[in-house]
Write a structure and sequence with these properties.
This protein is mostly beta strands. It has one domain. The protein contains one helix and five strands; from the N terminus they run ββββαβ. The protein has a five-stranded mixed sheet. A hairpin with a 4-residue loop joins β3 and β4. The longest helix has 10 residues. The protein starts with a strand and ends in an 18-residue tail after the last strand. The C terminus is likely disordered.
Amino acid sequence: MLTDLQLIKGSNNHCSKNHTVRCKAIEIIFYDHKQHCFNTYTIAVQYCEKCKRYFDFYNSFTSQLKMYHIPTNALHINCYDQHHRKIKYPSQTLSYEL
């Protein structure tokens, strides 16, 4: 289960620093409001072997959520920006403005 995810924007990232990056399919936990229970869903994210951190580009991550109709306020993961600062969002909701 994925509990921490770095959401990045821009070209200064793990890939541009020549780190070894692998694409991985990882399960995320979210609250399914229709079924009134927690559920998991598999998404594609990147893993930096040097930093030992899962990350994804912000637009890619939010597009995956939208495609599968998972609202951002249903996520139960910690998200960080490209500077490793925790993204603070009310009621577990990701802001579409980083």
